[in-house]
Write a sequence for this structure.
């Protein structure tokens, strides 16, 4: 069913800073939903807190703009209650890799059919520029005036190691690759992580559009086979890493497999009765249930 | 002490791993089968092997209100049990133990307490199964208590019948050894308890009653993280839920648990989660999220002794302030605190209905004492055909034009739509929002029009409290009117208070009870009317601060005259309440 692009947009104008990388993500996501012909009412976009977590409000799909770091569990509950929905979680690096990193790992190992889009700007933007879990070593921020002394999280490597079945990186400055990974990620049956390098033009003066433009390349174009787990892990570890090698940033699909079933496909109640939201409430055989108490 | 006649107080103690709980449960089931009412209380420790745990089964011809006090007989599965429990065995009672393992010579016993050695381990070894030692002791207990052997035999056959018949045979042999030993060793204790035909009563814990109600009420999503004493809800629903379409999810932590339940509730499934105080503390922020997004969720808080990790295997009523104050800012909530198993069932059904009708979290507060102990229940009390009220929903066949998810309404309740319904798309926001759901928190605060809008949206949400308050039940006055003393309690303490009042009445004291079970929003007017008519009050609650007494004062201005608090981890005993009430009435405080 064809839906006009306009029908995916809400009446709310994004309040991101001019030039924010998140505009490109919103635009690519809107187009992706249209390309995939997903009716807006069949889509639920769940987010946490942060600049990028405002995204659901700019779409005319269903949305849930929750609390900081908890987008994935909310998305999980909604998906299990109604597996017929297309469930997308969205947010920033602080939300997903900082306060919510526990849920990040556990949601991936479940391989629910959810797409998780992380707008990664390597900084806390909404709180005016503190170090984030992906801020690179030596990065000077408001909270690290002498430079970050921790290693950054490598979300792609974590994802490959944790059971995500689709792992990709996009860049707001490369809308073609971004659109490609979004389409493939949402179509993928299983958990998809799409980490998008989405520059913060206000607070991150290091990892700018230019910084990325000098370093990004599309891995598959250089012969990377995303179906090869070992190659995928190696590709994920190219950047960021503890050696602080920063010359090249791989983008596009890093890992992809359809060898594993989704959580929903194995869930005992869903297998027997289908979506909980469509089930009749109450029980038919009270005697059978009460029997064990006699 | 006429009241204590015609009842059995059976206690079994040993190390964790000795089969204490299963032995007690088997005994309790036998009693239920024999027409008695039972009440069990397990005292255990946070160890998997070793330590000291014991379970008391109180069985009576009449309904039992509390766990009871000193036992008539104690099965000592180890020396420590004998050391700890022998001195409290009632006059004329008995100690059962394996003479080769437990020495009773130096123990101080009350008058006429019999020491009954049994060849427990020897018999079990002879049969090739060490755990049969407990069955030897059970057989002996039957003889002491004049319980016919047939129910045990049937019970064993029921339990093991599907396995190999040799196992049934072995169990029966073990039980016979104990039974026969006692018959030639002084005979029964003469407690005078009459057994009758099995009247078809259930035996159930508070946690299980919550599970049953959840199934009946159409709960389709349950999430939890293991935590004593709420874990048995997870275990029961994991075993039984999927057969009834319930998705049961053990999550990575309680943050995930409550957020998953909220996600499921947002999508349109009836969702529940359960935990104890520590897990509930982690859920606090998300409860506010549900309040703000107007998402229904039922959160069961089975209290244990705090603070912090506290005494994990012990009971307390110390989380009332936590539940009342959970979450930043003001948001509407309901708090229900069942008194007994039937209340657990009814309150759970009510919680699901209130959560959906008012589109907000409902907190159900139980505790270890009520959650884990077995009680008999009449079958008609658990009528599984329960009322289901899903609240105000949009007409899913409409076009959704001009849909306002958070429409200002008189009662604060706006029509709800579920993702998947065509045309009703909205974004639920934890930020303050307009009727349509659009945020006013980012670029609009401070602008006059939106200052007003924020106030109106707060008012709208908080108006739900009036509806909730209307739908809750006022406290119940139990016992005779015109009492000289009214004992105030909330939640599970009520039943022990009732027993104390019966005992006080037998001594000629006129005491009644004011029982609170629908806690919040507080029924202030109705409570005030009752308080206007009572004489002196004594508030009995299981925490240090007197949290409920504070709430009562905050809501009504009424200051209770006397307090009895308990925070040692043990449940109240009726005799403690009798003593405090007597003190109040005889000496004024």
């Amino acid at each position: 069913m064809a839906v006009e692009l306009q029908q995916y947009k809400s009446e709310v104008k994004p309040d991101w800073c001019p030039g924010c990388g998140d505009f490109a993500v919103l635009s690519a996501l809107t187009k992706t939903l249209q390309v995939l012909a997903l009716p807006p009412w069949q889509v639920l976009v769940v987010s946490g807190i942060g600049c990028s977590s405002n995204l659901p409000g700019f779409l005319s799909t269903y949305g849930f703009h929750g609390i900081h770091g908890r987008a994935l569990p909310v998305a999980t509950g909604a998906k299990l209650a109604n597996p017929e929905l297309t469930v997308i979680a969205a947010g920033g690096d602080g939300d997903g890799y900082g306060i919510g990193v526990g849920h990040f790992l556990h949601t991936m190992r479940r391989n629910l059919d959810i797409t998780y889009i992380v707008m990664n700007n390597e900084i806390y933007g909404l709180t005016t520029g503190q170090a984030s879990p992906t801020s690179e070593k030596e990065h000077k921020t408001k909270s690290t005036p002498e430079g970050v002394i921790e290693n950054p999280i490598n979300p792609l490597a974590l994802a490959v190691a944790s059971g995500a079945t689709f792992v990709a990186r996009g860049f707001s400055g490369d809308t073609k690759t971004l659109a490609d990974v979004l389409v493939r990620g949402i179509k993928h049956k299983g958990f998809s992580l799409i980490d998008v390098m989405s520059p913060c033009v206000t607070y991150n003066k290091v990892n700018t559009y230019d910084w990325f433009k000098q370093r990004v390349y599309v891995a598959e174009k250089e012969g990377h086979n995303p179906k090869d787990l070992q190659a995928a892990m190696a590709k994920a570890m190219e950047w960021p890493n503890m050696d602080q090698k920063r010359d090249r940033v791989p983008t596009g699909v890093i890992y992809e497999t359809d060898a594993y079933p989704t959580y929903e496909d194995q869930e005992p109640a869903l297998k027997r009765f289908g979506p909980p939201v469509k089930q009749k409430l109450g029980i038919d055989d009270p005697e059978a249930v009460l029997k064990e108490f006699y | 002490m006429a009241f204590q006649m015609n009842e059995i107080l059976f206690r079994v103690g040993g190390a964790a791993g000795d089969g204490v709980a299963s032995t007690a449960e088997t005994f309790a089931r036998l009693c239920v089968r024999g027409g008695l009412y039972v009440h069990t209380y397990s005292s255990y420790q946070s160890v998997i092997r070793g330590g000291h745990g014991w379970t008391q089964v109180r069985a009576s011809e009449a309904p039992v209100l509390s766990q009871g006090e000193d036992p008539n007989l104690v099965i000592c599965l180890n020396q420590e049990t004998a050391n700890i429990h022998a001195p409290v065995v009632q006059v004329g009672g008995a100690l059962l133990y394996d003479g080769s393992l437990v020495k009773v010579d130096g123990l101080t016993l009350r008058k006429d307490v019999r020491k009954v050695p049994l060849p427990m381990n020897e018999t079990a070894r002879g049969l090739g199964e060490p755990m049969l030692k407990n069955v030897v002791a059970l057989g002996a207990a039957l003889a002491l208590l004049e319980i016919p052997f047939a129910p045990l035999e049937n019970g064993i056959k029921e339990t093991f019948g599907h396995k190999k018949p040799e196992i049934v045979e072995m169990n029966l042999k073990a039980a016979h050894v104990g039974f026969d030993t006692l018959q030639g060793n002084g005979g029964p204790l003469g407690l005078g308890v009459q057994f009758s035909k099995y009247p078809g009563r259930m035996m159930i814990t508070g946690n299980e009653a919550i599970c049953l109600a959840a199934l009946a009420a159409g709960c389709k999503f349950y999430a939890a993280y293991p935590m004593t004493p709420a874990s048995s809800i997870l275990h029961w629903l994991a075993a039984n839920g999927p057969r009834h379409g319930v998705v049961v999810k053990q999550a990575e932590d309680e943050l995930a648990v409550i957020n998953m339940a909220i996600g499921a509730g947002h999508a349109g499934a009836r969702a529940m989660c359960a935990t104890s105080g520590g897990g509930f503390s982690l859920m606090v922020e998300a409860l506010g999220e549900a309040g703000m997004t107007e998402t229904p969720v039922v959160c069961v808080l089975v209290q244990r002794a705090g603070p912090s990790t506290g005494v994990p295997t012990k009971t307390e009523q110390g989380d009332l302030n936590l539940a009342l104050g959970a979450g930043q800012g003001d948001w509407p909530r309901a708090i229900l605190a069942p008194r007994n198993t039937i209340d657990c069932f009814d309150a759970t059904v009510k919680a699901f209905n209130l959560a959906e009708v008012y589109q907000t979290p409902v907190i159900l507060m139980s505790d270890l004492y009520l959650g884990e102990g077995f009680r008999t229940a009449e079958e008609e009390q658990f009528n599984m055909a329960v009322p289901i009220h899903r609240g105000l929903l949009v007409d899913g066949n409409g076009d959704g034009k001009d849909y306002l998810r958070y429409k200002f309404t008189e009662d604060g309740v706006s029509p709800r739509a579920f993702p998947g319904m065509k045309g009703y798309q909205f974004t639920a926001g934890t930020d303050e929002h307009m009727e349509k759901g659009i945020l006013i928190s980012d670029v609009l605060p401070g602008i006059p029009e939106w200052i007003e809008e924020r106030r109106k949206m707060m008012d709208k949400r908080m108006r739900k409290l009036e509806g909730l308050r209307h739908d809750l039940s006022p406290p119940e006055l139990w016992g005779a009117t015109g009492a000289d003393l009214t004992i105030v309690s909330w939640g599970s303490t009520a039943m022990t208070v009732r027993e104390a009042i019966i005992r006080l009445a037998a001594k000629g004291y006129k005491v009644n009870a004011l029982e609170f079970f629908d806690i919040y929003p507080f029924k202030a007017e109705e409570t005030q009317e009752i308080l206007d008519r009572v004489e002196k009050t004594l508030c009995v609650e299981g925490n240090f601060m007197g949290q409920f007494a504070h709430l009562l004062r905050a809501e009504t201005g009424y200051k209770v005259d006397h307090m009895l608090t308990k925070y040692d981890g043990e449940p109240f005993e009726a005799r403690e309440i009798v003593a405090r009430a007597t003190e109040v009435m005889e000496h004024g405080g």
